[in-house]
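Reviewer 2 asked us to include a model.

Predict the structure of this chain.
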Amino acid sequence: MFTLTEILTLFVILIITVLFVSYTFIWIFIISPLKRINEEQNRILHTLLRKDQIYGDKLFDISSELSKRFDNLEEELTNDRDNVMPLPQLSEMIEATIREQISIEIALSVKMRLPRKDLVEIITINVCKTYPFVDKNYIAKKCLALIESTVSKNGE
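Predicted model (structure tokens):
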């Protein structure tokens, strides 16, 4: 039969063969598929992170634009709330201011052949600056009415 060294040699060869086959089996059927799955998950994760960064940047841009628009809207609403129609006492003060502005502009244009074409605009802007909380349409109409009445009184 076999000697002890031959049996041990066969046993060692058998163990080495079993280990090699086991390692190959584990590598082919377990490690390699897991490695491919891991690489695929890494690619998916990288793609998701890039998209997340892009969407995060877009969201930040949209958020800041929305914040700016909200601030502008809030400012406009505040300004609209502040522009009020004047009470009678304030109306008299506005009328006095307009008459003073008309007097100043007439005094400055005494030696001119024709009055300045932006006279109404200048007076309206000056009065609006004096009373910024009063409705601008009211001031513009009041200026036009007083200028017309002054022109018609001087023309007669």
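The chain has a mean pLDDT of 86. DSSP finds four helices and no strands in the chain. We have added this to the supplementary material.
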